[in-house]
Amino acid sequence: MDFKVAIIGRPNVGKSTLFNRLVGKRLALVDDQPGVTRDRREGTAKLYDLTFTVIDTAGLEEAFDNSLEARMRVQTEQAVDEADLAFLVVDSRAGITPLDEHFAQWLRKSPTPVFVLANKCEGRQGDSGFMDAYRLGLGEPVPISAEHGLGMTDLYDFVDEQMKRQQEERAAVQGMLAEDAATDGEETDEEEIDNRPLQLAIVGRPNVGKSTLINRLIGEDRLLTGPEAGITRDSIGVEWTYKDRAIKLFDTAGIRKRARVQSKVEKLSVADSLRAVKFAQVVVLVLDAEAALEKQDLTIARLVEEEGRALVIAVNKWDACRNRDEVIQDLRDRLERSLPQLTGVPVATISALRGQNLNNMLDRVLDAYKVWNKRVSTSALNRWLEAVTSAHPPPAPGGRRIRLKYMTQAKTRPPTFAIFCTKADDLPLSYGRYLENTLRADFDLYGTPIRLNFKKGDNPYAKDGR
Is 204 flagged in the annotation as binding? Predict the structure, then answer.
């Protein structure tokens, strides 16, 4: 079992900066504007020789209605409940505020151990705020600077102590379980665990239901949702299992047209979403059934193809859709016209809110992943190459026909093929598309990008000067 540390505190005290410092990467968005973080984000922290899971949370707000701030507070409370240790971060330069005191009182009632971190203590400007943190009643605060990396050794000592205590408790429990198993005379075989989960990114325009979809899949309100567009800002990864297959779901911020993206935070959010696509293996493009496959949707789909990722299209809000046959036909026509490089991309109609047809979508995701990893034997490829060139011979620029001599698959993920031929530079794009479409149809490579590389064969007589 993993050791988890939750970073909590009011807005703009440096929680995301500390999160980035611990994981060693700029995963969480950081800006001077308060309230940038909304969903809780998990990452693998490395503090000297310690490795644990750290959770970045939204800034605590004293809101208890159905507002966005209240839903963010609920997410933070869930993070604290799941954690083995909590860091309460305060701003030593601003001093202790009534909001800090309010949430310190709440944390004193929580069974999760709490460690107070007085952030922004570089220089002398934070001395008074650091001393003021004693009155929170949560033990001795530790002065740190998340931005400059000060105070990390003190964090190490406290985390190390808590981890050792947890290990001792778990060792005792495991010893009791082992005794029970021995008395029962039962043997258990450990199955091999796949440590590399399928990386699945959920992308789309704002407010099409991406976070709702993930919440429905995992069976809990893990991500913030609501009628407000643009709630999600960070690309949040959630580990999950479907049909014994480990999957890591990535919820991403809605991607709008570049001209409409004005604020710095939204620019960072979109860049984070694009990075999630680059690291994904399969991408689910979520569409709104009432406005399926708009220009921006096609732009996102082309980006997925250019990055070489398998694609599945999920048409959401299908339960509220009218003229379903017309919508599906229009969607397929637009895909064929505007996205021929992904002919046959799988389409699933779903309702994330009601949980309808989600298994069908996930089965298509697993199928797309298999196609993305598919390998075709060299002998089969060369038999195919001979057949297609006989049926439709290559052109003959300058009176000499181009010869396609040999073909092999260079790699998978996505399927990439090398064709050795004469006059590779003179081969028309139209003939390359013919080969790609026929290859896709004959070897069932639908829904994934295909890469065809035409290489000029070496002249064996060139060195002899003939």
Answer: yes
